[in-house]
Amino acid sequence: MGRHRHTGGSVLGYNIQGKWRYEGREWVAVPGTFIFKPPGDIHTLITEDEEVVTLLILGGSLQYFDENHQIIGQDDIYTFLNKYRVYCEYHGIETRDDLIY
Length: 101
Prior knowledge:
By secondary structure, this protein is an alpha+beta fold. Helix content is 15%, strand content 36%. The longest helix is centred in the last third of the chain and has 15 residues, at 77-91.
């Protein structure tokens, strides 16, 4: 995931599989790591393994930045939901609307 920032509240997470970290930071999330992040920090997620599974709970939106700290995009629950449905339709996968309430 490129340079981004979370808005709307803290991020809670739990790393299930694989390793990842933030560029320029010393810590590495390994299986069993609990993640807490206050909103507002601009960071870049880097995976250390091919497959990473992490549960992240966040509110608000994700803002994406270029190398000059300019916002180049933004996602929220509505754009993510739309991307999910478009992806499923494109790949012939049935959507799981029962997961959304």
